[in-house]
Amino acid sequence: MNDHGNPKDATLAVWAGEEGPLWENATQVPVVHSVSFGYDDLEHWAQIGRGEISGHIYSRNSNPTVRVFEEKICRLERAQAATAFASGMAAISNTLFTLLAPGDRIVSIKDGYGGTNKIFQEFLPRFNITVTLCDTTDQGAIEAAVSQGCRVLYLESPTNPTMKIVDIARLAAAAHRAGALVVVDNTFATPVNQKPLELGADLVLHSATKYLGGHADALGGAVCGPRDHIRRIFHFREINGAALDPMAAYLLLRGMKTLPLRIERQNQSAIQIARYLQSHSAVEQVFYPGLDSHPQHAIARQQMKGFGGMFAFSVKGGYEAVKQFLPRLRYAHRAANLGAVETIVGPPATTSHVELSSRERAAMGIPENLVRYSVGIEDPADLIADLKQALKSI
Ligand SMILES: *Cc1c(COP(=O)(O)O)cnc(C)c1O
Hints:
This protein is of the alpha/beta class and 394 residues long. The chain has two domains: 9-256, Aspartate Aminotransferase, domain 2; 259-391, Aspartate Aminotransferase, domain 1, CATH 3.90.1150.10. Helices cover 38% and strands 14% of the residues. It contains 15 helices and twelve strands. It has helices spanning 9-15, 42-49, 64-76, 88-99, 114-123, 139-147, 168-177, 190-193, 227-240, 246-256, 259-278, 297-303, 318-325, 358-363, 380-391; strands at residues 81-85, 105-109, 130-134, 152-156, 181-185, 203-207, 221-225, 283-287, 310-315, 333-334, 344-346, 370-374. Helix 5 (114-123) links the parallel strand 2 and strand 3 (130-134). Helix 1 (9-15) packs antiparallel against helix 3 (64-76). It starts with 8 loop residues before the first helix and ends with a helix. The model has no long low-confidence stretch (mean pLDDT 96). It binds pyridoxal-5'-phosphate.
């Protein structure tokens, strides 16, 4: 494609991957449901199969609609290459199983996404891969663990649900000194608020199901990074089969066109609502990296352009109070997902950390009276008024 200068995120979100020409002069990306692609010229077909010229053979390997989604996220993350997956978890597991081999060690944090934590605790050890999970906010401990040697340093920032921040640039430097690869799950921040590759990460992962799609109507995932790493991960995925469906790819890339607009609104609303809650007498604590009171606010300021649309808060009166007040919210889905145009709320005790006992949650620093709040694109004044009337029940 021919870029004039250096297009910004809002321009890339709309145009990247869609510069055309598209089929029959369509201005919108066609959803190509075809499983296979046919060729009369056997030599041409073979060249595509060997990857010598571009084209598609079979949709488990590549598909034109999925290709546009990959190009869009690749450009937004300022990566060389990207490959798409059926879900965020497929992106994470395929990436880890491509990079790791028996005898390897991986270092990560205790506050990682629940599904990722399951891979660390349940599946990787079966393949004789050592997993070291460090205190999320103890950057010195993570550096020390990495310096003992590892294949991969796996990070997430901000984390779920207590919005801890890890210093990506500092830890990436430590990992590179130890010869390790740095992988960052950027689902919460999105490339609009944080660009891990520019901070020194080697690979950046997404659950596109959340903010990238933004409408809670399609599952998908992606990994972005240097061409040779992405080629290896793509190869693992094409054989293991976690391919993104073309219809889901279309929904995701349509959602991505408004990603910078949505994130801008959600950044602005989240800080307003977080400040409101901080001053509310029924609220114990607010966890949002944009607040001065957040313990890693300084790191967040350094590595993020905006602080995102996710926060959590604890209410007085324990889990009973949460049960009282959540059903009273008018403008919120009570559900397990996040990052959509609608506001979504849920206690970690019934969503992301439901499989744990209350004691295990306490050990992870997740109180029973915590509520996770994913701000939608509604008018923030309406959301504040809604919280105000619901919190009256406490
Ligand atoms: C949701 C989520 C995932 C998993 O994505 P799916 O699309 O549900 O498979 C991974 N990481 C983070 C941070 C998430 O929020």
